[in-house]
Write a structure and sequence with these properties.
The structure holds two protein chains of two kinds.
Chain A: H1 3-6, H2 39-49, H3 51-61, H4 63-87, H5 98-108, H6 116-131, H7 144-155, H8 167-171, H9 182-187, H10 196-201, H11 213-225, H12 232-251, H13 259-264, H14 268-275, H15 286-306, H16 313-330
Chain B: H1 2-14, E1 37-39, E2 46-49, E3 59-60, E4 67-68, E5 73-76, E6 85-86, E7 91-100, E8 106-113, H2 125-129, H3 144-153, H4 166-170, E9 180-185, H5 194-201, H6 203-217, E10 221-227, H7 231-241, E11 247-252, H8 261-269, E12 286-290, H9 291-302, E13 309-315, E14 323-328, H10 333-340, E15 346-351, E16 373-378, H11 395-399, H12 406-414, H13 418-423, H14 434-438, H15 445-478, H16 481-485
Parallel strand pairs in B: 1-14, 9-10, 9-12, 10-11, 13-16
Antiparallel strand pairs in B: 2-8, 3-5, 4-7, 5-6, 7-8, 13-14, 15-16
Classes of the chains: A mainly alpha, B alpha/beta.
């Protein structure tokens, strides 16, 4: 007699009524435990880390900063929803927070005087041309926010370099409609440069979110400590910029600003922690992330010192994004026990 | 990051043995770690699969309706990589049947009916299994070949889960000498406590088994490896091992997968095992044996008792009466769980631990030599959520204890691109599950990798067959004209 056939499914004994029907269990592949990290949580932690920058931005530039952020996020969400609809894949991706992160990062890298309708276009283009056409989350080659910014620079070249004084400056009696950014001032050798303190707190002309190095540093360090952002890219970017700036300053102290000025100005602190650490555009391999970060840092300095633009973070990121597949291929990790023997 | 730093400081301060990367799942051992081993007496007939280990399947020895006694050999084979199977109870051989293994495979089996009269087991079976009187046993008085023969005759296989026949691992080979045996008491899988309880309740036999294994293999060192979260077991084992030649004790960091050979060996000895599938601990002069295997070695060699029972932890939020049970091999999960009670909200039944154990779809699965636990996870314990796109966060790479790139492997396998997967060292993966544990996108990475390995094997076999066919064809075509040309 086949024993296997004669044994009833084993739930409860026969004298327990209501338990006799065969119980069906879930079948799935191991592991059956998870640490609890989710894409959504990661995205919202990134947003939380950008809160200090956001607060400074609203303090320095008032309601325009808020309006710009709302406009870019709206542009991103509308484009995401529209492409989801066209591709017939449901609107679940709106909830994962990735489009909001793209929108906020884009808003933070726009000049505060920009018209919100331009910001909206930038957000929509970021998602549509840089993310959705490649297949959505995780598939894009280039950082969507940087593509959106590049698009706006081409379409609205004047508006994209029109920087205004902060409200703190206006209160101090500065009467101007435009304001040179610290890097522009340094590149053109203007007489009056902002102090380190002003760079740290963000009382300088510049893009919405990138003025205060301190706010970016605080949020960025929190992200690194939470292990949301990899520590390698910020260290590589800031380290290579510091080395490059130190050498340049040592060779020509009158012409080039020092290490701290370079670290605290422009998009660097914000970019090192929030843009260079973007998962999708950077290599996944540990060594590749070092190379990516160093490449961004070196390119930023090359553009700052020798380029036509005073700041080059966007270009640096886009160029390194393009090199990412190559870097990944080049830095295939060696397994702990060596490559598998043929 | 702060937690990781704190852990590293702790490891350095305490001088713990550890390895790079890996993860820290919740322990959840409180369900059963204080429950002494109990004897489980089957109420239903056993279904004993003919292959419970790596290697060849056995052939039944007896005809149906033959009465067999506890410990009698009931199946064997001439194949080298194999282990015979013995009757775990007194009973009557039934007709050939089909067993379902925990991994879902179906396997020819012997049905073993409970005896109509008398006890299925010898008297005081639990007491004799946990007998702590091993005084006067001199491991070196046995001949190394005799030890290996007795281990083979006892049907011993690795009880940590890999189920490789033990005698092969211990056989002396002058070309590849073994200098160290690691006794693996790490038990790094959450929930499981079978090895822990065995170390507490029967340490003498385990130590004798380790000494026998050292003598058989010609190893001078035997290192007992236990994770820090089992201080009572560390104390007991240290006490028993004291004064015996060549024995050391290594306290390991509580980290998953500490009990994996490729993590334990570098952690304890600082040696790197070459990558699977060709590289083996033997390549660096080491053999790792599980504590339960060592216990069985002592029983098989000194007392001539075959491997018929093993300690199985029944645990989890879905188990109404969790515990550590001494279970005859061939027991159906359902029979065992009927005595432990399955809660209404039980969602998954897992053979083994939650990190590597396969789920079983129903309970007509047999307990085989490699099953160290049955985990019944309640709905609340199970990780929910479905797979979402990879966001390339790199956590799987940062946590892989073998330094592989799980996301790259899964991506390649999804596109059935085995060539790329092999460039990322597909076959080196040990399927420990760290990658999926940390994945925010809920991607079942080990599942992709497993199916990739299968696909690679199939493709390799196809390629070999094609090459052979082409060679044969070429030979047939070339053979006649060749002499004419010369």
């Amino acid at each position: 007699m086949s024993q296997a056939d004669s044994i009833p499914p084993a739930q409860g004994s026969a004298d327990q009524p209501g338990k006799s029907e065969p119980k069906v269990f879930h079948v799935s592949s191991a592991p059956h435990l998870t640490e609890g990290a989710t894409t959504r949580r990661i995205m919202f932690e990134v947003l939380a880390a950008m809160l200090p920058m956001f607060i400074i931005a609203v303090y320095m530039f008032g309601g325009w900063a808020l309006a710009l952020t709302v406009a870019t996020v709206a542009g991103c969400l509308v484009a995401e929803a529209a492409t989801n609809m066209i591709r017939g894949r449901g609107q679940a991706s709106l909830g994962d927070g990735s489009a909001i992160v793209t929108g906020v990062i884009l808003a933070f890298s726009l000049p505060p005087s920009l018209n919100p309708y331009m910001a909206f276009i930038g957000g929509a283009v970021a998602i549509l041309l840089a993310k959705a056409v490649f297949g959505g989350l995780g598939q894009n080659l280039f950082n969507p926010a940087m593509v959106g910014r590049a698009f706006l620079m081409v379409c609205f070249p004047g508006a994209m370099v029109n920087f205004v004084p902060t409200r703190l400056m206006e209160a101090a009696g500065v009467d101007a409609t435009t304001m040179a950014t610290p890097l522009y001032a340094a590149a053109r050798h203007l007489a009056e440069l902002p102090s380190q303190w002003e760079l740290l707190i963000g009382n300088v002309g510049g893009c919405v979110g990138e003025t205060s190095a301190l706010a970016a540093l605080v949020g960025g360090l929190w992200l690194v400590l939470r292990r949301v952002a990899d520590w390698r890219q910020p260290v590589a970017v800031l380290g290579s910029v510091a080395v490059f700036a130190a050498i340049a300053h040592w060779l020509a102290p009158d012409k080039y600003q020092g290490v701290l000025y370079n670290l605290n100005s422009g998009a660097l602190m914000f970019g090192a922690f929030f843009i260079a650490t973007d998962y999708v555009g950077a290599p996944v391999t540990p060594k590749g992330r070092w190379i990516f970060g160093i490449g961004v840092g070196v390119l930023v300095m090359v553009i700052r010192l020798f380029g036509a633009y005073p700041e080059g973070f966007m270009f640096a990121i886009l160029i390194m994004n393009a090199l990412t597949p190559l870097i990944e291929r080049w830095t295939t990790p060696t397994p702990f026990g060596g490559h598998v023997a043929a | 990051m702060i937690a990781a730093l704190r852990e590293r400081i702790h490891v350095l301060q305490k001088g713990l043995k550890s390895f790079q990367r890996g993860v820290h799942p919740p322990h959840r051992k409180a369900y059963t770690e204080h429950r002494p081993i109990e004897l489980f007496v089957p109420a239903k007939d056993l279904v004993i699969p003919m292959a419970q280990s790596l290697g060849a399947a056995c052939e039944p020895i007896h005809k149906p309706r033959t009465e067999v006694k506890y410990g009698e050999k009931i199946a064997d084979t001439d194949a080298f990589v194999s282990a015979p199977i013995h009757a775990p109870i007194n009973g009557v051989i039934g007709a050939g049947t089909i067993a379902v293994l925990p991994n879902g495979r179906r396997m020819p089996a012997i049905g073993l009916k409970l005896p109509t009269e008398g006890s299925p087991l010898p008297d005081n079976f639990l007491a004799s299994f946990l007998d702590r009187n091993w005084d006067g046993v001199e491991p070196t008085s046995f001949d190394p070949d005799e030890i290996c023969q007795k281990i083979r005759a006892g049907g011993l296989v690795g009880q940590g889960g890999a189920t490789f026949p033990t005698f092969i691992k211990l056989k002396r080979n002058s070309a590849r000498p073994i200098d160290t045996i690691l006794l693996n008491g790490a038990e790094c899988e959450p929930y499981l406590t079978a090895d822990h309880r065995l170390m507490l309740e029967c340490p003498e036999a385990i130590i004798v088994g380790l000494q026998l294994a050292m003598h058989a293999a010609g190893a001078q060192r035997g290192i007992i490896c236990i994770e820090e979260n089992k201080p009572d077991a560390i104390e007991v084992m240290r006490k028993v091992a004291r004064g015996r030649a060549g024995l050391e004790l290594a306290v390991c960091a509580t980290k998953y997968p500490m009990g994996g050979e490729r993590q334990l060996i570098p952690a304890v000895l600082g040696r790197t095992v070459p990558s699977a599938p060709k590289g083996l601990p033997l390549d660096v002069g080491v053999v790792v044996i599980n504590v339960a295997t060592a216990h069985s070695i002592a029983r098989a060699v000194v007392r001539d008792l075959p491997f018929t029972h093993r300690v199985v932890t029944v645990t989890g939020g879905g188990a109404q009466r969790p515990g550590n049970f001494l279970v005859p091999l061939g027991t159906l999960f359902g029979d065992l769980l009927e005595q432990c009670g399955v809660a209404d909200d039980a969602a998954k039944v897992i053979a083994g631990g939650p990190m590597m154990g396969p789920t079983v779809p129903h309970l007509e699965v047999s307990v085989v030599k490699g099953v160290n636990g049955i985990l019944i996870m309640s709905d609340a314990e199970v990780a929910h959520g479905s797979e979402s796109p990879c966001i390339r966060c790199g956590r799987c790479i940062d946590n892989c204890p073998l330094y592989l790139s799980p996301t790259k492997l899964a991506h390649a396998v999804k596109h059935r691109d085995i060539e790329t997967a092999e460039r990322y060292d597909l076959m080196a993966c040990c399927e420990c599950g760290c990658c999926s544990f940390v994945c925010p996108a809920n991607i079942p990475l080990p599942q992709y990798i497993r199916s990739g390995k299968n696909l690679a094997r199939v493709q390799a076999a196809q390629k070999r067959a094609q090459e052979q066919a082409e060679q044969a064809k070429a030979k047939a075509a070339e053979a006649p004209p060749e002499p004419a040309a010369k």
